Amino acid sequence: MSREIRNIVILTGAGVSAESGLATFRAADGLWEDHRVEDVATPEAYRRDPVLVHRFYDARRARLCEVEPNAAHKALARLDAEWPGELLLVTQNVDDLHERAGSKRLLHMHGELTSGWCLACGERFAWEGPMGEGASCLQCGEVGQVRPDIVWFGEMPYDMDRIDEALRRADLFVSIGTSGAVYPAAGFVQTARCCGARTLEMNLDPSIGSTLFDESRLGPAGKLVPTWVA
Ligand code: BV8
Fold this sequence. Notes:
Strand content: 15-25%
Structural class: alpha/beta
Number of helices: 9
Strand order of the largest sheet: 5-4-1-9-10-11
Largest sheet: 6 strands, parallel
Order of helices and strands: EHEEHHHHEHEEEEHEHEEH
Bound molecules: ligand BV8
Distance between the termini: 23 Å
């Protein structure tokens, strides 16, 4: 007898934004917008070549005004508005499509393109437009110390305690549009399972951890998610 579903945790990855036109990470031969991940998404890469890293993130930030939330984002926002129990949408994505669709109970575990982080004073603040090396901190005014507020490989994702607590309370864990290639996100299904949650995956192809899910639905998120939420 499956227990009543009150508390839901949803994890999304790049696949949920694919139908909006944003590139996923591991689509074509591991290149990401023509860059190797290790050349643009690590603290070492930033120290080595800040101009390249800023250019990579400035280009992705500029894309945000050219894309719209798709049916999957909108269905998740509807669920957020209507679900009476606990619900937490944890996204690995750094785009702003979930919030633009209306999701409120949302957490960006890998940071956000629309946020800057000053290494001089530690403050984080909303950021639009190119960041580049000459950017000055909106708080302390220091120039050239603003980095993308993005969790790079080797850096600790945000709000892990809050995520862990939600996973342990979850009656249902749903993973949407992620390859299950990156930790700690790829391990969330195990945490949820061991605490008794039902687990559902919706993905274009079977993810690396597909066999860990009670149920795996294959197809585009723009079709599967609105059907599931309905
Ligand atoms: C950390 C920000 C520790 C950058 C990103 C344990 C085992 C092995 C390795 C590790 C481990 N623990 C840590 C590691 C190292 C590393 C890691 O996991 N490496 C991997 C490559 C092996 N992890 C880390 O470094 C993490 N940090 O653990 O820190 C620590 C502890 C203490 C103190 C300090 C540190 C940090 C990881 C975060 C890295 N940053 N993003 C940016 O975005 O610019 S990760 C990056 O990959 C994105 O966030 C992305 O979301 C994420 C995962 O990719 P996906 O979202 O899944 O995208 P992908 O393209 O892979 O897959 C898309 C899927 O969608 C596919 O399955 C496809 O079929 C599907 N799809 C496509 N179209 C559709 C669709 N599905 C539905 N509908 C469609 N239309």
